[in-house]
Amino acid sequence: MERNMESLVQVKGLSVGFRVFEGLLRVLDGISLRIGQGERVGLVGETGCGKTTTVKSILKVLPQPPAVIFGGEVLFRGKDVLRMGRRAVHQLRRSSVAAIFQDPLQALNPVFTVGTQLSDIVRDWAAGTGKRLSKKEIFRRCVEALAQTGMPDPERIMTCYPIQLSGGMRQRVCIAEALVRPVELLLADEPTTNLDVTIQDQILRKLDELVEEKGMSILLITHSLGVVMDLTERVYIMYAGTIVEEGKTEELFTNPKHPYTQGLLKSIPKLTGEGISQGIPGRIPNYLHPPSGCRFHPRCEHVMPICTQQKPPLTESEGVACHLYRGDVR
Amino acid sequence: MSSRKEAALAVWQARWKGLSRGWYRYSRNPLHVVGLVVLLLIGLAAGLAPYITPYPEHAGPYTNFREAGLPPSKAHWFGTDRVGRDVFTRVIFGYRFSLLLGIVVLSISVPIGVLFGLIAGYKRGSWIETVLMRVTDIFLSVPPLVLAMAVAAMLTPNLFNAMLAISISWWPWYSRLIYGMTVSLREQYFVRELELTGAGKLQILLREILPNCLGPLLTKVTLDMGFAILMGATLSFVGLGAQPPTPGLGTMVAEGAKRLPAEWWSTIFPALAIVVVILAFNLVGDGLRDVFAEEEV
Amino acid sequence: MKDVVLEVVDLKKYFPTKRGTVKAVDGVSFTVQAGETLGLVGESGSGKTTTAHCIIGLYPPTSGELRFKGQDISRGFERRPLSLRREIRIVFQDPGSSLNPKRHVAQILSVPLKVHRIVGRGERLSKVRELLEMVELPPDDYLYKTPRALGGGEMQMVAIARALATSPSLVVLDEPTSALDVSVQAKIISLLLRLQSELGLTYLFITHDLSLMRNVASRVAIMYLGKLAEIAPTLKFFRSPLHPYTKMLLSSVPVVSPEERALKPEKVVSRGEIPSPVNVPPGCSFHLRCPEKGEACSQLDPTLQEIEEDHFVRCLQFQGPP
Questions:
Q1: B29 CA to chain C: closest CA distance, Å?
Q2: Where are the alpha helices (DSSP H) in chain A?
């Protein structure tokens, strides 16, 4: 059942590297992904797989140098973000895309109150749309946004400094900052990684509600498969700068195809208590000299001669980038 | 191959790699390289002053009133002073004394400061910390120049006493720096683990904590060379440092200043020399800071 | 009954602060038996790490008793004999901060060998090699690497080797895998389990991850605001969780399969946050967030009681009239 959704964001063949002392780190190797209008998409991968680089490319906040973009495009409503001018990018960020990050304390300015930071965002957004809002109106919107995130006593919180809040409350403030203006896409980069499970659960449920209510798209970047399962309908699995598998979240997790996804799912400790696997042998490759062909082949138990020579494409039909699933080459 | 040799080889390989990585980071800013080159040139010139300067005898109590007060020319690049000595020669010799002063000052104040800082930081919360850090604070609370001037004025004014005076006002800064770093390092789990294991305190301080302080320490030492030289020149300028006829840069500026603006060269060139050396030390210090900054990407 | 390795009796650790006394650990009692893994689970601020740090002696307890194989150890590490420090070792949470970035692996692993005179000077390097092989790191590749050149999992393997260098009997694992990716975590955990059965180690496993404990621990203890809420053998614990907080935790665990979802208690919606340990609510400290709270909960502080064999719960629901 393919929902025929208009694409909001389309990343096509994005390749990004970093120039460092040792040479060129070829991190992203032709990433393609698509976020439909109102769709919830997950991007899952382990530390160092290039998740954050992908997000930064979409937001156009990658510092260049050291980053080098070799090719590809990031289309937002058909317009290439990578080729946008400074003004267009600003306009995009203030009225179309919002982001929340893993560490809310870094995302919030410690010397301004929550209220000041929120109302600045509203004012900037209003300036972009040419609206004029009264002080009262701005205040009302801010309080409303805070209340929507499930924050107790939002009016008092408006006068607080970030340092006075707990980790969970800070993340709620960040969500309020993201959603205090109407946006089309929410980028959530590990939004609950630093939080306790009970708080994580509350935040995820709140995010779920808000995304549903506002009908926006969300790209959830995380290393936690369980979190993706909770919040998204479609998921991309990323390994070493490549997308190895894509599919409907439930289906993909019940029937993983790529050997990496299978290994990953086996590594997760489960409540059913079936024991812990040995993990995936080896470690994430060195981006200086990434493996030829499929980047997973040195760690793969099903490796075939072709895997070392040819990079498997992500097939439309199967949604997996693996030679095992390509009848024609076997 | 014996294991000991193998170990040494591996360690040297790692060091070499670290060095070349450091150079890569340092040289990313061309200004840092310029600073280093200037510094090397100054150091070389100062070291070889008696052999490379055109009139080495002018460094001392030499007079030649027939050539007094000459403007810059081919024979005298920076002109001559009021008793006919070549200013260029004297500037190079002045660098000699300045660098010597910087090196002596830092080799007195750094070890004292590091020792105080390490012990006080590690003994945080005990009376030892209180005593060491309050002593440090007392020294810090007096403006360094005033303190140095007071000490220098108390002793006979000469280059050696100037060094001593500056050292006394300088060590507390190192004490503070190392104290702060030690306090945060001792909270790290690796220090905790060593304590739990039962490693000796001396081992922990000198072999585990100190190596982690070296980067910022080296950066500060480099930056401070410039400031120590400046302070030495200041003391000389007010007559509490190198005494005439010793060619201290500050002394030369002071002497020449009496003849401004007519014989500007005998003031401006020594003054510029001070500016150049301080700038060079600052650039190199900045570069080192980049080298030791936490890994990005 | 098996040999008791560690006995914790009414352990309290208070920290005086400007805003009042933080009761980080407030009357915790449990035992750890030889060869078992006790999972001590809690969220941040629950006091699980403070408990662990008291046990290894990082700070002396405010009151209460700690006994190791019958010997009283309720004091800081400075006042513990070396022989005791050899027996109880710890693996810290953050491998980045638990290894000195300026020392290479061989130096790091030599320290405990040197301090505790495990082997003579000449045999030190071969013992270090042995330790590295034990944690599945090829010595030739790793001996002279500094921590910066290692991945998170490899660092933690070195930290484990360091803990095992003195052949301890009790190893405190303070969230050893919480900073690692799942595939690396799986590797570390299987290593730890293999070492446990080979060397007959006893683990006190501090963590916030319930699903991990389901697969690793032989018994699980839940802490909330410095007190134990529930403690039971793993199977019983997950089959019939009793404390409302345990249920809330379990229902918050993100899972990936329908089979797992079926195991979560239904409709225990997570709400509220852990109160500050400076202002612990009166009565049962959980009552503000508790979905099953009764009238007495805000006044009476329940005690830990054995509901069925080996299954202890601290909740008024299960407590008979006084």
A1: 25
A2: 51-59, 86-95, 104-107, 114-129, 135-148, 154-157, 167-179, 197-214, 225-231, 249-254, 259-267
